[in-house]
Design goal:
Blueprint lengths: L4 H45 L11 E5 L5 H11 L5 E5 L7 H8 L3 H7 E4 L5 H15 L3 E7 L3 H11 L4 E7 L12 H20 L17
Parallel strand pairs: 1-2, 1-4, 2-3, 4-5
Helix pairs in contact: 5-6, 6-7
Length: 224
């Protein structure tokens, strides 16, 4: 073999290696994209079929994570009134909202509100909700809670709370937002963006190493 053919052979070998690496990368990219899409489909399927349990089991307390409207709070108050849990924790209350305003929204009498409702003004996001819920449950010795939040938020909320308190048992009570009559069957672009954003946050929560974020100060159960 002449010396002049060696560089050409080397270039051919490099081209084959690069071509093989590109095929591997393309396969991994396609496989990863497929997994993400399949995961999103499963996520949307769960949300669209999520319902509160037909028969509620006995729990120690009820936890409501605040949202854009007061529908979750009303559900939590109703569960408390019906005896599903000794106490109600409302996590993520806006600091500008006074306890009296919350009581009026819940439509609870002063005696029940003062004795059995705890307000968490510290939580600012789902991670904080989980930390405050875990602190509340530990302080009261609760082992089983009924979690009230929106259907799309439930998977991430449950995962965060379970990570904050490994031995807690969580019963899901998803609240489904009613659609207006002019909403398309697929939910509309606003709803799609909301679900994509929440799915991304869920993946980040799964990927995040437990314990990376600092634990907040413990919430002390208040009497209103």
């Amino acid at each position: 073999m002449s010396k002049s053919t060696q560089p050409a052979k080397s270039l051919n070998n490099n081209s084959r290696v690069h071509g093989a690496l590109f095929k591997v990368f393309k396969f991994l990219f396609g496989f990863g994209t497929t997994l993400l899409i399949c995961g999103f489909v499963l996520f949307v399927t769960y949300i669209s079929t999520a319902k509160p349990p037909a028969a509620l089991p006995k729990v120690d307390g009820v936890v409501v994570l605040t949202g854009a409207d007061g529908s979750r709070l009303l559900v939590g108050a109703e569960l408390l009134q019906k005896g599903h849990g000794e106490r109600l924790l409302i996590s993520g209350v806006n600091p500008t909202i006074k306890p009296a305003q919350i009581q009026g929204l819940l439509k609870l009498g002063s005696e029940q509100f003062n004795c059995c409702v705890d307000l968490d003004y510290e939580a600012e996001n789902t991670f904080d909700n989980a930390q405050e819920t875990a602190n509340w449950a530990k302080a009261l010795g609760y082992e089983k809670i009924l979690l009230v939040t929106s259907a799309y938020h439930m998977p991430r909320a449950k995962m965060e709370i379970a990570s904050a308190m490994n031995d807690i048992e969580i019963v899901s009570y998803p609240v489904v937002t009613e659609r207006s009559v002019d909403t398309p069957w697929w939910g509309g672009w606003d709803n799609t963006r909301l679900l994509v954003r929440e799915y991304g946050k869920l993946l980040v929560s799964y990927a995040r190493e437990p314990g990376k974020r600092p634990t907040r100060q413990k919430l002390k159960p208040s009497d209103g």
